Amino acid sequence: MPDHVLTIFAHPDDAETMAGGSLLHLASAGARLTLCIVTDGDKGTDDETDSAAAVIARRRQEQARSAARLGAEVVYLGFEDGLVQPTLELRKALVRVIRQLRPDVILTHDPTVWFRHDVYINHPDHRAVGQAVLEAVYPAVKKPRTFPELLEREGLTPHVVREIWVGPTDHPNHWVDISRHLEDKIELICEHASQFPPEPTRAAFTRLAREAGAPAGLAAAESFRRLYQVRQTVRVLAGGGDAGVAPTGQ
Ligand SMILES: [Zn+2]
Predict the structure, then answer these.
(1) Is 246 a domain residue?
(2) Which end of the chain is more exposed for a tag (fewer CB within 10 A), N or C?
(3) Is 244 a member of any domain?
C-alpha cells in the first residue's frame, strides 16, 4: 500500500470522476491523499452572466467539500481552464510540486485518449495534463540538472515516483474493485453540484463502473494503465530486478 498518493488532474471534479472509488479505497487503507488540480475550472458554467471569479469560488467550495470527505489536501496550480498546453512552464510547475510532495504514486489522465464510448471527445486539458505529468515524472523529476534552479534556489532534490496510474484508458492493466465504494464515489461527484445533476450522474457512473469491471470479473471497478519507475530502468529491462521495482500494492 502506498503511503502518499498524489492525483494530478486538469479540473476540479476530475479526481472524483476518474478515480474516486480508488481514492476512497486507498484512503480507507491509510494512504495520505493530495489532489493537485492544474486549472481553477473557471470555464465550468453555461450561464453567460457568471463571472470567472464566481465560478472559481463556487468550484473551490465544491472541491473543498469533496476533499474533506476523502481526507485529502488540495493544491491548485492556477492555469487557465480550457487552454492548457503541455508547455515547459507547466512541466516545471509539475516538477516543483512533485518534488515538494514526493509521492509514491501519481494518478493522472491518459494523454493518448481522444474518444471514449463514441459520445465523448476527451477534453484537451485532460490530454495536455496527462502528457505534461508523464514528461515531468520522466525524466525531469528524477534528474538534478533539469530545471537546476529548483534544486539550487528552492532545495528541491530529485525524486523517483514509483508508480504512475493513468486513466481512464483504452489499455488497462490494473483494476481496483470499487464495489464497496461506488455509492460514496457518486456522493463525492455530486458534491460538484454545479457540474453534475444527481440522477444521470448516478446512472452514468454505475454503468461505467460495471463496464470497467467486466474484463476483470468485478461488479464495479476503475481501471488504469499502471506504470512502474525505478532509479535505473536499464536494470529492470536487463531482467536483473531493482530494489525499487516492487509494486506498492493497491
Ligand atoms: Zn476535466
Answers:
(1) no
(2) N
(3) no
